Amino acid sequence: MSNTPNELFYTKSHEWVRIEDDGTFTIGISDHAQALLGDIVYIELPEVDSELDAEQDCAVIESVKAASDLYTPVAGTVIAVNEELEDAPETINGDAYGEGWIFKLQPTSLDSVKGLMQAEEYSALVAEDDE
Amino acid sequence: MANRTPLYDQHLAMNAKIVDFSGWEMPIHYGSQLNEHKAVRSDAGMFDVSHMNVLDLRGREAKVFLQKLVANDVARLKSEGKALYTCMLNEQAGVIDDLIIYFIREGDYRIVLNAATREKDLAWITEQSAGFEVVLDSPADLAMIAVQGPNACAKTEQVLGEAVGNKIAKLKPFNACFCDALFVARTGYTGEKGYEIILPAGDVVALWQQLHQVGVVPIGLGARDTLRLEAAMSLYGAEMDETISPLACGLDWTVAWQPAGRNFIGRRALQAQRDAGVSTKLVGLLLEGRGVLRGHQKVISESGEGEITSGTFSPSLGKSIALARVPVAMGNRCQVEIRGKRLNARVVKPPFVRNGEACYKELVEQSSTHNS
């Protein structure tokens, strides 16, 4: 069973969003997504200061199997990226919600999370996927 | 309707992630493709390859028929059990499939075909066999396991018992023998030592479990691909297909030109290509920086453009590798276009890894002066 923390928001394309105390968003991929991808061997991170539209592809994650695009869940400006992943992309496999975070966003609107799924809804989607 | 091998329930019990492979529900990995890859390079792994097809060909004219059917020459098979790797060509010299032919005895050959090409292969072989005194038999109740890795032979011999173990231990690479209902071959698709075992479907679960009990790890199709790519073994549909001749994809060594009078299918077209000069070659690429080379990416150099046929991250080398079809004049440097960016790569002579060790050869940059 995949791990799906309650305090996070999720997308259909398997990204997660954490709302930080300062109103910025931290974004990564879900435990379910890392399991689907398999061993991750390379990541092309978003560029800091780039302005992204909601659901825009902004990074590429490559596993031994294939390359997959990462989509930003909401619109905003990239304020930080997890450069540690360049040398250790497998961190995403081991700790998708912690050390495996991918980038931080200053969202255009705080309300933008309203369009995202909560843990319960996302778990149901993943359960369907696993059928 | 998806096909399942007799080992399907074993895969589920071992936590396999199942994917569709040419109409077969096969394991892509059992948790970690990287760990599986490393198990084969350092110890022993087992693969369910029961989706591949066995075709037995017998008859008074079996030999002369095969001498017409395939580009390599079965006359090279002099001792019983010897195996031959060959391409089966169409009249245009494109590759219909690559296959292994085992010489069982005079007038008796066993052929192993790819799963994805089964129907067209059988149709083609049947069509070509008209007028030859041969019988084609495609036994449906067989299964196949490959056991590969530095400890694969010892562990397989242990499991199969003393009598069989002693017999197969004497097999040289690319040789096979029957041990009652088992057909055991010293062949594989990983660049490691090991066996491929063809056996009755009813016996395969027990063998799989016994191998697992002595520490042989199950390996999915994911690691099968990274292992064969490190070993620079061609994959039908990637390195070659019906539009590519063996001369253009690094398989010229599988074509037997002698005797000149052997009129195998595709020979005329192949000879014409050879006379005109082949414009491409298959090379290995090593990506210098970060990133992952993948099939169909464009290869760029001063001597022209080529294409990656298979690319991946090499678990053994810790960097990305690829096989690519490029202009014959390409030197030892090139660039690969990945998502609009051009990244530097080195052109090397594959294989990349054999018997657990890096073994690729750097190309020496050819002098630009001509002494003709």
Please sum up the structure shown:
Chain A is an alpha+beta fold and about 130 residues long. Helices cover about 20% and strands about 30% of the residues of chain A. In chain A, strand 6 and strand 7 form a beta hairpin.
- Identify the biggest protein-protein contact and residues per side: A-B, 13 and 17 residues
Average residue pLDDT of chain A: 93
What is the CATH fold-level name of the largest domain in chain B? Gyrase A, domain 2
Main sheet properties of chain B = 6 strands, mixed
How many beta-strand runs of chain A? 9
Fourth-tier CATH superfamily name of chain A: RNA polymerase II/Efflux pump adaptor protein, barrel-sandwich hybrid domain
List the domain count of chain B as a whole number: 2
The CATH class name of chain A reads Mainly Beta
Helix and strand pattern of chain A: EEEHEEEEEHHEH
User: How many helices of chain B does DSSP assign?
Assistant: 9
Q: Provide the CATH architecture of the largest domain in chain B.
A: 2-Layer Sandwich
Helix content of chain A: 10-25%
CATH class of the largest domain in chain B: Alpha Beta
